[in-house]
């Protein structure tokens, strides 16, 4: 018998749909132990506004976690400045980061088996004078690792990225042999560790139109990507590419692949989100902790209306639990109990 998984769920941007998605989740019976890491006052204010009735239970490490419908365990984080739905406030930024820190530290300390994040608003955090480009980079720095990989996935498609939240003008300079090597090794390893893919087959996109058209539309494929892939192939990693990104996302290639490695954010993610927005998960690979997230943003236009769909949050929780169980398996001593 395996013990239940305990996941921290950060509620994200106070003005966004994160807090109400947490409350929506609390109205259901849950298979996992979920502790929402957020301001309890914020959750109470949002449920008052929306006419919801969830019993918020203050939780601290070591205490049991309720899974009952209508109840929600909350690790209270102080410092929220304003709680209005739809109206962002840079004064909330440090509080938002404090929720991430508390959840991540709890994972490192073994209090949580993993963390799931509701969306934050990158722009508002920067408006507070805090440089922040995303959970992915924040957690990379917090955990002190050199490289992590952003991967979004649906049941049918996984898309990982060589570069994450970079201005487009900075992308070509970031496509280096070192980065491609690190990202590809992490992707290959974590597909095995967390997703049960024994011998991952990875399609790699080129950077330029038509993968550079033999050097006539850019040379990154010839000078950087292909030689790097060749070295990685010699390590036994199964790579196809660099392929033209416009035709890579077709059944001809995808039917025989386990993941796509795109060179930059808007090369890969629009395809994934077109295919499965609302039921996809965002995973950070290469961390010493499990972290999953929703596929959508703060949806300020929907906050407080009750119209936000919780489909992606359900996926993020399911995949987070699956990854946490795989991590336990990998750490289990031979013959030992999980
Ligand atoms: N995981 C994260 O933290 C994360 C992910 C993506 C975007 N963001 C951030 O969110 C902010 C807003 O980004 P955006 O406007 O590009 O994207 P968005 O996902 O917030 O909104 C895009 C559209 O999708 C709708 N939508 C989003 N989530 C929905 C849901 N659960 N149910 C129904 N409809 C939903 C919105 O109403 C909007 O029309 C930005 O600051 C961005 O950086 C954060
Ligand atoms: N790139 C993500 C997306 O488009 O869904 C999103 O911005 C969230 O990224 P982080 O998990 O790094 O916050």
Automatic annotation (TrEMBL):
Pathway: Cofactor biosynthesis; pyridoxine 5'-phosphate biosynthesis; pyridoxine 5'-phosphate from D-erythrose 4-phosphate: step 4/5. Pfam families: PdxA. This is 4-hydroxythreonine-4-phosphate dehydrogenase. One of its GO terms (biological process) is pyridoxal phosphate biosynthetic process. The gene is pdxA. Homodimer. InterPro entries: PdxA, PdxA_fam. GO terms for cellular component: cytoplasm. Its EC number is 1.1.1.262. It is an enzyme of class 1 (oxidoreductase). It catalyses: 4-(phosphooxy)-L-threonine + NAD(+) = 3-amino-2-oxopropyl phosphate + CO2 + NADH. Substrate binds at residues 135-136, 273, 282, 291. It is found in: Cytoplasm. GO terms for molecular function: 4-hydroxythreonine-4-phosphate dehydrogenase activity; cobalt ion binding; magnesium ion binding; NAD binding; zinc ion binding. The active site is located at the dimer interface. Catalyzes the NAD(P)-dependent oxidation of 4-(phosphooxy)-L-threonine (HTP) into 2-amino-3-oxo-4-(phosphooxy)butyric acid which spontaneously decarboxylates to form 3-amino-2-oxopropyl phosphate (AHAP). HAMAP family: PdxA. Gene3D superfamilies: Isopropylmalate Dehydrogenase. Binds 1 divalent metal cation per subunit. Can use ions such as Zn(2+), Mg(2+) or Co(2+). A divalent metal cation binds at residues 165, 210, 265. Belongs to the PdxA family. It comes from Marinobacter daqiaonensis. Its cofactor is Zn(2+); Mg(2+); Co(2+).
């Amino acid at each position: 018998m395996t013990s239940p998984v305990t996941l921290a769920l950060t509620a994200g941007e106070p003005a966004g749909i994160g807090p109400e998605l947490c409350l929506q989740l609390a109205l259901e019976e849950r298979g996992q132990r979920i502790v929402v890491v957020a301001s309890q006052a914020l959750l109470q204010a949002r449920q008052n506004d929306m006419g919801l009735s969830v019993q918020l239970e203050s939780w601290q490490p070591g205490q049991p976690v309720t899974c009952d419908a209508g109840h929600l365990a909350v690790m209270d984080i102080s410092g929220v400045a304003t709680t209005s739905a739809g109206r962002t406030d840079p004064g909330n930024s440090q509080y938002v980061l404090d929720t991430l820190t508390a959840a991540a530290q709890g994972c490192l300390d073994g209090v949580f088996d993993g963390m799931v994040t509701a969306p934050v608003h990158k722009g508002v955090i920067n408006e507070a004078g805090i440089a922040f480009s995303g959970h992915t980079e924040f957690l990379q720095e917090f955990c002190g690792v050199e490289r992590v990989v952003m991967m979004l996935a649906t049941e049918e498609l996984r898309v990982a990225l060589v570069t994450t939240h970079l201005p487009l003008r900075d992308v070509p300079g970031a496509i280096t042999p070192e980065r491609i090597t690190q990202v590809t090794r992490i992707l290959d390893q974590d597909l095995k560790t967390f997703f049960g893919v024994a011998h991952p087959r990875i399609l790699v996109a080129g950077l330029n139109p038509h993968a550079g058209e033999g050097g006539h539309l850019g040379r990154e494929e010839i000078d950087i990507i292909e030689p790097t892939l060749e070295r990685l192939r010699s390590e036994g990693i199964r790579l196809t590419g660099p392929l033209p990104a416009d035709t890579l996302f077709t059944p001809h290639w995808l039917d025989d692949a386990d993941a796509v490695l795109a060179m930059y954010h808007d090369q890969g993610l629009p395809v994934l989100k077109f295919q499965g927005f609302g039921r996809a998960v965002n995973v950070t690979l290469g961390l010493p902790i499990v972290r999953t997230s929703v596929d959508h943003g703060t949806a300020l236009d929907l906050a407080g209306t009750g119209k936000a769909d919780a489909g992606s949050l359900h996926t993020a929780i399911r995949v987070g639990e699956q990854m946490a169980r795989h991590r336990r398996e990998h750490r289990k001593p031979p013959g030992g109990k999980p």
